[in-house]
Structures are given as structure tokens and as C-alpha cells.
What we know:
The protein is 67% helix and 4% strand. The chain contains seven helices and three strands, in the order βααββααααα. A hairpin with a 5-residue loop joins β2 and β3. It is elongated. 10% of the residues are buried.
Amino acid sequence: MINKVGGKSAEAFRTISEVSDDIDVPQHVLRFWETKFNQVKPMKRGGGRRYYRPDDVALLKHIRSLLYDDGYTIRGVQRLLGEKGMRTVLLQARQASCEEDLVVHPTIQHGAGPESLQSSAVIKTEIDPNGIGAEKRRALEAVLKDLQTIREGIER
Length: 156
């Protein structure tokens, strides 16, 4: 299987710059995460050059998602990894990724237009990847709308 990163196979080790580009996180953040998450252990070669295994990359992608998308703190992610273990967290991340693919792919495969892609995004949010429930999501969206209205009023 060929990956889009430099034409390497999916099993190939990645440099820090490749991982940084792949998951859209600066290299210094990846180095910082190594100090905070003992599960992230890239192989180091001569001169301290880092090489990330495919599992390292998958874990880093999930850590990024938990921190940036789901709103976890570093301590929260540490606790999650400590309680559930790295393998369980990675398995859940892969399952969530597969669920997203299942929702989006049927629409794309049938050659649908942009309108269908928007509706697939709606379907995807109904799956509720964060586990907060549709009712809570609507309540939070209403609060967000109110806050945006208040902000607009202040800025005038």
C-alpha cells in the first residue's frame, strides 16, 4: 500500500518533518508531546534524529484530535491513555475513523454533487463522534449562537 507522504509504504518509518506535515502540528509540539506522553517513543538514530513508526503516527493523530478537536487537556489525554491503555485508545480511534469513512464514502462513490456532500456532513455529525448526544449538541449550538449575537452587539 502506497501512502501519499513521499510515496512511502504505509509501514515505513516517518521523519519528524513528515509527521509534522501529515498531522498539521509543528515539530516542536511533537517534541513537547514526547515529554508529556510516555507512550510516544519514536526511534532515535545517530544525531538524535527521530523516526516514527506507523503506530506512533496513529497515536499522535489521535492525541491531536483529542486535544484540538475534542477539547481535552494534556492531563485529560494522559489520564485517558493511562486508564484505557494505548492499544484501546488506538483501536477506538481507528473505529471512529472507519465510521467516518462509512458515512462519507457512499455519497462520494455515487458521484453526488456538493449538496450531497453537505448532507453527508450532517449525517456525520449525527453519529456524534464526541459522544455528547444530539440534544446536548443542539443546546450547545444555541448557546454558541447567543454568544455570537452578544459579541456582535459588543463590537458595534
